[in-house]
Design brief:
two-stranded antiparallel sheet, 4% strand, mainly alpha, 5 helices
Length: 197
């Protein structure tokens, strides 16, 4: 039985950038063409870092072209998630896993909630989207620098009594972004009807 033709991707893949990954585009720029991860011939490290970058670029694509109000919209009630909240949350996740865990830093969260002890990633009423995206871009760049500074996927650190390898952190971050990009799909479709990969 012949295969059913598959729809063509809505974004043209580009070749992977050399050495360091390209920075993510600013929020005001047109939707980015995502860097397609290698289909064959790449080692494990190149595959993991490429898939993580692809997931980052997917989030940027889901947020492209929206107003500040749309980015803050909690479009899928009763959830309090918004696209801007996801950007703020993932900036914190980048800082936590690559900075605090892998790089053994002691940086604290940028934001605290209105209730003492609670984080405020999704409390976006007074948030500045440009600032949030700038923080996210900076954290992604810092994460890439941490990864570039480690010589092996087997590099392992102790964090709060547990051992974590670079391999684990990269894999977990792909999972984290993929999960939240599913949320971003639903939010974006509810905001303006845009669908796609």
């Amino acid at each position: 039985m012949p295969e059913t033709p598959q729809p063509q991707p809505t974004h043209t893949p580009k070749s992977p950038p050399p050495a360091g990954m390209e920075p993510l585009p600013a929020r005001s720029e047109p939707p980015p063409a995502r860097t397609e991860p290698p289909h064959a011939g790449a080692g494990e490290r190149a595959s993991l870092t490429a898939f993580l970058q692809y997931q980052r670029e997917t989030l940027a694509m889901k947020c492209a072209g929206l107003t500040a109000g749309q980015l803050k919209e909690r479009a899928v009630p009763p959830s309090d998630m918004s696209l801007l909240g996801l950007v703020r949350h993932l900036a914190e996740v980048e800082r936590s896993w690559f900075g605090n865990v892998l790089n053994q830093e002691a940086a604290r969260a940028d934001r605290t909630g209105r209730v003492p002890g609670e984080r405020a990633d999704f409390d976006v009423a007074d948030a500045d989207p440009d600032e949030a995206f700038a923080v996210w871009h900076a954290e992604c760049a810092r994460s890439r620098a941490v990864v570039d500074g480690l010589d092996s996927l087997d590099h392992t650190v102790d964090f709060r009594g547990d051992a974590y390898s670079l391999r684990y952190v990269l894999t977990h971050m792909i999972e984290e972004y993929a999960r939240h990009n599913g949320h971003a799909d639903l939010l974006r479709e509810r905001i303006d009807g845009a669908t796609g990969e």
